[in-house]
Amino acid sequence: MDQEIDTLQISSETPAQTPDKILLAALKLFAEKGYFNTSLTDIANAADIKITSTIYQHFNNKQTIALTLYNSIFDNLNASVDEIRQTNEKSSEQLHGIVNLLFKLTDDAPDVMTFLLLLKTSDFLAEQKPLLETPAFVKILKIIQIGIRAGEIRNIDPMVAMAYFFGIINNTLSMILSGELDKKADAYQAQTWLAAWNLIAKKSTCF
Amino acid sequence: MDQEIDTLQISSETPAQTPDKILLAALKLFAEKGYFNTSLTDIANAADIKITSTIYQHFNNKQTIALTLYNSIFDNLNASVDEIRQTNEKSSEQLHGIVNLLFKLTDDAPDVMTFLLLLKTSDFLAEQKPLLETPAFVKILKIIQIGIRAGEIRNIDPMVAMAYFFGIINNTLSMILSGELDKKADAYQAQTWLAAWNLIAKKSTCF
DNA sequence: GTCTATACGCCGATAGAC
DNA sequence: GTCTATCGGCGTATAGAC
Fold this sequence. Notes:
- 2 copies of one chain form a homodimer.
- By secondary structure, the first copy, chain A, is mainly α.
- The first copy, chain A, has 8 helices and no strands.
- The A-B interface holds A 33-34, 36-37, 118-120, 123, 130, 132-133, 154, 156, 159-160, 163-164, 166-172, 175, 178, 180-181, 188, 191-192, 195, 199, 204, 206-207 and B 33-34, 36-37, 118-120, 123, 130, 132-133, 154, 156, 159-160, 163-164, 166-172, 175, 178, 180-181, 188, 191-192, 195, 199, 204, 206-207.
- Chain B binds a DNA duplex through residues 18, 39-41, 49-54, 56-58, 61-62.
């Protein structure tokens, strides 16, 4: 894996090189139809390539494409979490920053968020961990643990707090991505953050 | 589809007929490995059948097996929701009954709940609706709408209430099924119900 | 580095004997 | 109603020309 595209910055203006075109086409198709319903022929067609063999110049196999996307997305997420932790002090601020990022990504890069939330990556990336065990979410768990010790967050099992907090956030975003909620993520952002945060915060204002 | 097993009552003592053995084997394998990672050969082996052709005596194709499971599970869920609505008056009681059912199913029939919550059925049952548009969940939406009119539930978009309420419930159950939460569903039932209900209830006690 | 041509295997599905 | 045998096709992957 000597090539890494910044999958979270799809809108970059640089004309895509072939490996990037393949990755972007694959991301789009995986998000649309799922990994198993997407053939290499589909990817080649969507990436302005005549035939599948060209793909093998850049990736060992189909799984590697998915793995590269996976690593790219989670590396970026992980880096964003790091930055948010550094520029914010309190757990509430850090979590708020992360929620804002996820909502922004849902509007700006829905394919990335679909890959993140809706695809069951363990079906085609056998060795990959579930969402909440990825480095980014392990750090989020830490934020919650620190928040509990600091008295910001109620004293409950941190994993349960994760379950509740991201249950609200991820389910809301999933329903936006699937169209069950019909407005842009931006329209739900403020109230969803409040709902999720008040659920785990120590001093809940109950709206 | 002239045969319908009660997929939600796996523990029934009657010795399984061949179609039922096929369905139960398929359910288990789909929940374990996913639809696309499960071949008809896998299903035949797991169902005490020598070869795949026997399967075609009972089902038109692989997709039909999945569809039969899907219909069976959702028919049962729908019937349970009907019964809960008939035996309970208030929206809070009806929702509580549904939550209790889902938690009980998670412990008693984890494969059914995995099919329900973790499998992306639209990938292999193209015509099927997302979870929240199934008859059972449409009725649940009605319960919420009635609850809002009755003053039991806060006056917010019913779909948003669904998103929050079942975000907590389904994510908690998903994490139990995947092992990210390590106790039985029963251990989380009471507090998770309270968290989800207080989130949408009008007069929240905030614990 | 992209394309032509092709190999290979797996899996879904069918025909037909018993 | 279950099994033997086999087909056909799709999709991954490779070899090699240009």
